[in-house]
Specification:
Blueprint (H helix, E strand, L loop, with lengths): L3 E5 L4 E7 L5 E5 L6 H10 L3 E6 L11 H8 L2 E5 L9 E3 L4 E4 L3 E7 L8 E5 L2 E3 L4 E2 L2 E2 L9 H12 L7 E3 L10 E2 H7 L8 H9 L9 H8 L9
Parallel strand pairs: 3-4, 4-5, 5-6, 10-13
Antiparallel strand pairs: 1-2, 2-3, 7-8, 8-9, 9-10, 11-12, 13-14
């Protein structure tokens, strides 16, 4: 079954709903607070029961609705253990497996680099890559414990070793692209393909990106599952 991909235009964030084909159970990845009612409507319309809310990291560009969704649905909040989000009852480690539905499993892959705790999630040949790997690019590495060296190693050793056909569902896109594949990214990613570790580190150091506008609000809120900003 294909993931349901939803988009927040203000932050260019993708949210994903995964539905278990053998039950009503569903999982949501990286929900955004201002889309709470939209996401709940999708879940209700399709007759789903939300069991897990997953975060790929503590976001700096939007506030999560994880806390509100947990309160309204009873779903478990699942977060990377290295991101400092203590209210979540499930603190994920590399190699963990999240079961849902009758026989569904989501593999947890720790991919530090964008932030120290960043995680990717693998389900049925679909990789939900957060800000670690984008379509044709990658997340920045200059705050929240980020490291260009760590990101290069995460992608090279953990993501680019997946099957070529693995679909890549990014956490953001700014160019109207919605999905890619590991094989395509390994060969064509503008920042990572055919580039040495040293070249990648130099490239990332030269980006000189502006500070995220919502960082001072979003990061503290997201470390509390967005509860201070929930509706």
């Amino acid at each position: 079954m294909n993931p349901i991909q939803l988009f927040d235009a203000e932050s260019s964030t993708y949210t994903y709903i995964l539905a278990a084909p053998d039950s009503r159970d569903a999982v949501i990845i990286d929900p955004v607070d201002r889309n709470l009612e939209r996401d709940l409507a999708h879940i209700e319309r399709l007759g789903m029961r939300l069991t897990h809310v997953l975060e790929t990291h503590a976001h700096a560009d939007h506030v999560t609705s994880a806390g509100a969704l947990r309160a309204l649905t009873g779903a478990k909040a699942c977060v990377p253990s290295g991101c400092g989000i203590p209210p979540a009852e499930v603190q994920l480690q590399d190699g963990d497996v999240i079961p849902f539905g009758g026989r569904e499993h989501i593999a947890v892959i720790h991919t530090p680099g964008h932030t120290a705790g960043s995680m990717c999630y693998l389900w049925r040949g679909n990789l939900f890559s957060g800000d670690t790997l984008l379509v044709g690019g990658c997340g920045r590495t200059d705050f929240q414990g980020g490291s260009a060296e760590a990101l290069y190693d995460s992608v090279s050793a953990k993501l680019f070793t997946l099957d070529d056909a693995t679909r890549v569902w990014p956490g953001h896109d700014y160019k109207g692209q919605s999905v890619s594949s590991i094989g395509w990214e390994r060969r064509h990613n503008a920042r990572l393909a055919n580039r040495s570790r040293a070249d990648f580190v130099a490239l990332m150091a030269a980006l000189n990106l502006p500070r995220p506008k919502l960082m001072d609000v979003a990061v503290p809120a997201n470390r509390n599952l967005g509860l201070a900003h929930s509706v």
